[in-house]
Amino acid sequence: MIHLATQGILTGMLMGAIYALIALGLSIVFGIMNVTNFAHGDFVMLSMYLSYFVGSAFAWDAVITPLITAPLLFIFGIITYYLLIDRTLRQMYVVQLAVTVGLQILMRSLALVIFQAQPRALQYSFIQGNIQIGGFEILTSRLFSAVVSLVFIGGIAYFLNKTWAGKAMRAASDDLDAASLMGVNYHRTYGLTFAIGASLTAVAGGLLMSFQQTDPQGGIRFGLLSWCVLALAGLGSVTGLIVAGVIVGIVESLSLTFFGSRSELLGVYAIFILVLWLRPRGLFGRR
Question: Do residues 47 and 55 lie in contact, with contact meaning Cβ atoms separated by under 8 Å?
């Protein structure tokens, strides 16, 4: 029992780093733009499909595919922002919800039409295999993906804190009117924010495809997981996102280990509801 629990915790910690990377894209869009993007999970699903096709076409490993898919998602994010999101910023909040939910349904329906319901997976990854540590098994692909996720999270944190564009994004988040008076073009800043959030899903999608498959319904799972991580962490703390992602990953892994696949997300949703009830700002939220 203890061995199984420890193995589940180790697996959950590695998956939690990837969940934190996915939630980071959602966090910067929601925290800076105050836009609730319900299609975020489907951006991950789209990224995984793009990773599959790039990997198949060029015989690339999944973890290398973000070299192509990340710029594609960045461009897709900019197009989505200027065609859909920008038009809703001054509208009633329910309009934003309707637009992102509509985008979610559209992406999922197109995926079903184009890719059918058959799951897709890449056949080979150079990081396949496992590492034995003290009787516990760690998949090399998940360990590598977790490390890469933490590197990208650290890179985004540096970007937000040390670069002019990042500081402009943070200023727009704190006080848009004051930031505009200081020369911040909020249209460009918001467009960059949404594009970065989309491109982060490409990195996560490539990492996920190194050890699992994708299907058109996969966006539901990743969307809900990212919202759970964000609710647990709160806004304004990158470290909080990592801790929250690890917690969600561990709870999911232990639920799967002891109660089977049917209850895989039961504990995660229980935490989500409990945090919203007891601490709506999250464990590390600054506002």
Answer: no
The first and second tokens of residue 154, run together, are 């650290």
> Tokens at residue 195, please?
């594009």
CA 287 to CA 284: how far, in whole Å?
A: 9
Buried b (16+ CB within 10 A) or exposed e, 254-285: bbbbeeeeeebbebbeebbeebeeeeeebebb
Q: Is the pLDDT of residue 287 over 60?
A: no
Beta bridge partners of 47: none
44: enclosing H helix or E strand: helix 40-58
HEC assignment per residue over 233-256: HCCCCHHHHHHHHHHHHHHHHHHH
Q: How many helices (H) and strands (E) does the chain have?
A: 11, 2
pLDDT at 47: 95
- Spatial CA neighbour of 287 closest among 10, 30, 70, 91: 30
Give domain limits for the chain.
Answer: 2-278
Which range of 32-36, 54-58, 197-201, 239-243 scores highest in mean pLDDT? It is: 197-201
Burial zone of 72 (CB within 10 Å; 0-12 exposed, 13-18 middle, 19+ buried): middle
SS3 285: coil
